[in-house]
Automatic annotation (TrEMBL):
Broad EC category: oxidoreductase
The enzyme's E.C. designation: 1.3.1.76
Protein name: precorrin-2 dehydrogenase
The keyword NAD is assigned to this record: yes
Record Gene3D superfamilies: NAD(P)-binding Rossmann-like Domain (3.40.50.720), SirC, precorrin-2 dehydrogenase, C-terminal helical domain-like (1.10.8.610)
Organism: Paenibacillus campinasensis
Catalysed reactions, semicolon-separated: precorrin-2 + NAD(+) = sirohydrochlorin + NADH + 2 H(+)
Pathway: Porphyrin-containing compound metabolism; siroheme biosynthesis; sirohydrochlorin from precorrin-2: step 1/1
Keywords, in A-Z order: NAD, Oxidoreductase, Porphyrin biosynthesis
InterPro entries membership: Met8-like, NAD(P)-bd_dom_sf, SirC_C, Sirohaem_synthase_N
PANTHER family reported for this sequence: SIROHEME BIOSYNTHESIS PROTEIN MET8 (PTHR35330)
Organism superkingdom: Bacteria
Length: 218
């Protein structure tokens, strides 16, 4: 078995195409909207009500026709999400020729990327893929992880982000930076957040500065 390479794609402002306008197209569109992509859907009709809504309010562009060669020019990535496997296969071949990332809904292994099930807690992303064992296995495992990684992780990662940014801004010496970052990840802030202490004693910029001053020397 060859393992696939997990990556995080920055789709912000990039043109992403979805060929097809059904349930699967809607799911892929929804994820790409959250990622800030510029979205174009090509499909003779939109079977998904949400896709139709987004086309109406202009948040996605809809071309009401079947796929044709040339549609892929200028795209960052494409989802082949029609219910016609031969059309999806043609899209995959065209995309490969042009060097464009392609996902094939009807036959995952024939595209250049697949979509994991995703658990988000603010800045935390947990992606689960099963290399062919099936998307429902991914979803079940995601549901198990939801209990382990509760809502408090959003506040926790925001805290880590603010601390790390402040350390990078305030501390020049690599040695001190490293020491502070090591101490940062050992702080038991998660427990503080769970107890609700964090709301009473927020880590505002002054307290962060103070912590940096107290901990920068051994
Ligand atoms: C390879 C992959 C390629 C890709 O699409 O990227 C793929 C492929 C296929 N899926 C099929 C079926 C279904 N997929 C779902 C749902 C999801 N599928 C997703 C990912 C992936 N699906 C990639 C592998 C990821 C991994 O490794 O686990 C999720 C996780 C993410 C997402 O789609 O964004 C999302 C859950 C989102 C969530 O809820 O969190 C449902 C349920 C439903 O639709 O409600 C069904 C019906 C039930 C069933 O059949 O199991 C079929 C058969 C189609 C046919 O019958 O023709 C194929 C084709 C094949 O197997 O190659
Ligand atoms: N990867 C996944 O997560 C899943 C994949 N599937 C697969 O994905 C396919 C699509 O599923 P659904 O969205 O439920 O189908 P659907 O039937 O709801 O939608 C298909 C869409 O494709 C459009 N279409 C058909 N021919 C086209 C063409 N030549 N050019 C452009 N658009 C065209 C139709 O107008 C329709 O809007 C299924 O056939 C199945 O093989 C199904 C479930 C989950």
């Amino acid at each position: 078995m060859a393992y696939e390479l997990p990556v995080m794609l920055n789709c912000e402002g990039r043109l992403c195409l979805i060929i097809g306008g059904g349930k699967v197209a809607e799911r892929k569109a929804s994820a790409l909207r959250e990622a800030g992509a510029r979205l174009r859907v090509i499909s003779p009709l939109l079977k998904s009500a949400r896709l139709a809504e987004w086309a109406d309010d202009g948040s996605i562009e809809w071309k009401a026709r079947a796929y044709r060669e040339g549609d892929l020019n200028g795209a960052f990535l494409v989802h082949a999400a029609t219910d016609a496997p031969d059309v999806n296969a043609k899209i995959a071949a065209d995309a490969d020729r042009l060097g464009i990332l392609v996902n094939v809904a009807s036959e995952g292994s024939s595209g250049s990327f697949t979509n994991p099930a995703v658990l988000r807690r603010g800045r935390l992303t947990v992606a689960i893929a099963t290399s062919g064992a099936g998307p429902m296995a991914s979803v079940t495992i995601k549901e198990q992880l939801e209990h382990q990684f509760g809502e408090e992780y959003e506040a926790y990662l925001d805290f880590l982000y603010r601390m790390r940014t402040a350390i990078k801004d305030e501390v020049e010496l690599p040695e001190q930076r490293r020491r502070l970052l090591h101490k940062l990840y050992r702080l038991d802030i998660l427990e503080e957040i769970r107890r609700g202490d964090n709301a009473n004693a927020p880590w505002d910029p002054d307290r962060i500065k103070q912590w940096i001053e107290q901990n920068r020397e051994e």
